[in-house]
Amino acid sequence: MQAIEYFEVECTEKAGGENYKQIANDVLLDHNMLRVVHKIHIYIDPKVPIFVAVGTLKKVTTIVKVGDIANVNPLEGKITLAISDETYLSQMLKVFWDRFGKDHVEQPDRFTVVLYNVPATAAEIEEIKIADPSQSLYKDLVYALRCICPEGFRVRSEDFGAEKFSFVASEDLLTEPVLALVKEKFALMGETP
Amino acid sequence: MILVPITYKGGVYRHNEIIDLIEDLGGYIVQKHMIAQEVVLQCFVPKDDVELIRAIGKPLAGEVTDSPLVGTEIAVVSMSLEIHHLPHPSCDIAEYVRRLGAKSNMIGMARGVGKRIAGINDEERDVINEHDIAVFLLGNFETCIEKKMPVLLRGIEVPVVVCGGPDKEALERIVKPRVDGYVGNVGRFMHRTKESEELEKLDEIIDEITRVLSKRREEIAKDPLSVAPARLMDIIREKVPEIQYVTSPTPLTVQMAGLRVKLPYDTYADAVRKAEIEDGITIGEIADIEPSRMRDYIIVRVKPFSETNIVV
Fold first, then answer.
1. Pick from B113, B185, B189: which is nearest to A23 by CB?
2. Are B18 and B56 in contact (CB under 8 A)?
3. Cα gap B276→B286, rounded to integer Å
4. Confidence (pLDDT) at B256
5. Cβ B84–A171 below 8 Å, yes or no?
6. Chain A (120-159) residues lying within 8 Å, Cβ to Cβ, of chain B
7. Is cis: bond before A49, omega within 30 of 0?
8. Total-model pTM
9. Is B113 left (phi over 0), alpha (psi -120 to 50) or beta?
10. Dihedral sign for Cα atoms in the order B275, B276, B280, B284
């Protein structure tokens, strides 16, 4: 798995900051965000209180195809798929049902899907696109940042572009200086918002 | 006769003999779990007879261990029931105290999170006060803990152990009003406790809970209860047979100075009140029978000897 190029947690309380670095690490790992986040800088000041997370994203262009998650084995009029990664199994079945009809698709057990008399070769099936992970990226990233952020900070402002994101949260109303703070934290990573 | 809390772990085969033995010796079985081929008994037994139970249990592959938390009901107070606090560390701690014999209940507060916005409502306060001890699981920031604790501790009458991210000295300095126990370096975290140092932290929490509870036990010993709650459990089981049909894991939850009866208060309070212990003395004479804030249960609070002049 690729590591994040820049990962800093800045906090006015030393011990709290260290704990939050661990939390951020766990959450990004659990939510499979390491493949997406390129740089991230988190700033927390519980006295204000404010939580700022700014960062840049990697380009996610990988489209998941049948060949990525299954071994396709043609045999006497049927094609057997041995599933190696279940994550996209339901999307894959949906694509097959739409394309070939439910009569031609069978799943005898958890890790096997069999296609009967389908008008496609094994190579063609391997190339069928089943999911685009970048579509749910925004939702996933915001959810992960909400998990990292202290729970009481419920007033949030999220800004998310193709390459950069910023997430600001507080218990109180967010005022103008927040924008300057976001800019300042981006500058620490050598980026502009 | 001094009763000590122990846990007996052994095979299902002939375990009835152990149950009979404990009852014959004058002990009480607080909880019985049957897990596949294993049986776990959490019980109070006479101090002098622990070795006897150990000897008789040995050929049955039985193991006797001290469980200082048997017969206590612990409130594990989480600041909320969101992903931020669950399942780690709240569930890890609640489960760990359960392993040592305590009955732990997790209380997720409606508005326990944050600094300025943190608060406690009357229901939460009353539910916490129905336990023997409350373990507050706080976050990582001193500033937040310092600001919110005076609010969260408002009206809490039971002993409190505070767990938080800052170290123990910092917690002792910032938590006001003072509480009974502090465990530092256990704040919010998002992974399972499986490293040895994390397990040591859990042990530290148990030690702190045990220390606070022993102090409370000493206080109770100075003015003993009119009846042992474990004995009351046996009496209710006998006199109010409907308790046998309750499907809850612990239909009768023994506490240090009382008992939670998981039957509806309106229907069964009188039956519990009128149940005779011995020589015409009823439970109503030596204990307060009150409606619990937890569902519609009954809470029995045993009065001390100084109030009733009765010991049965």
1. B189
2. yes
3. 11
4. 94
5. no
6. 147, 150-154
7. yes
8. 0.87
9. beta
10. negative
d(CA B311, CA A66): 76
Tokens of B46: 């006479």
How far, in Å, CA of A138 to CA of A69, rounded?
A: 24
In whole angstroms, how far apart are CA B312 and each of B216, B229, B309?
A: 21, 11, 10
Identity of the residue in B114, B140, B144 whose CB atom sits nearest the CB atom of A19: B140
Quote the minimal CA–CA distance from A173 to chain B in Å: 13
Is the torsion defined by CA of A126, A129, A130, A136 positive or negative? positive
Contact A53/A145 with Cβ under 8 angstroms? yes
Question: Quick one: CA dihedral B242, B244, B248, B250, positive or negative?
Answer: positive
ipTM of predicted complex: 0.87
In this structure, the number of other CB atoms found within 10 A of the CB of residue B249 comes to 10
Partners of B88 on chain A (C-beta within 8 Å) are none
SS3 content of chain A, % helix, strand, coil (to 5): 35, 35, 30
CA atoms of B191 and A187, how far apart (whole Å): 31
Q: What is the DSSP string of A120-156?
A: S-HHHHHT-EEE-GGGGHHHHHHHHHHHHS-TT--EE
Taking alpha carbons only, the member of B37, B36, B71, B41 closest to residue B56 is B41
For the CA atoms of A153, A155, A161, A164, the dihedral, rounded to the nearest 10 degrees, stands at -40
For B104-121, write each residue's pLDDT tens digit. Answer: 999 999 999 999 999 999
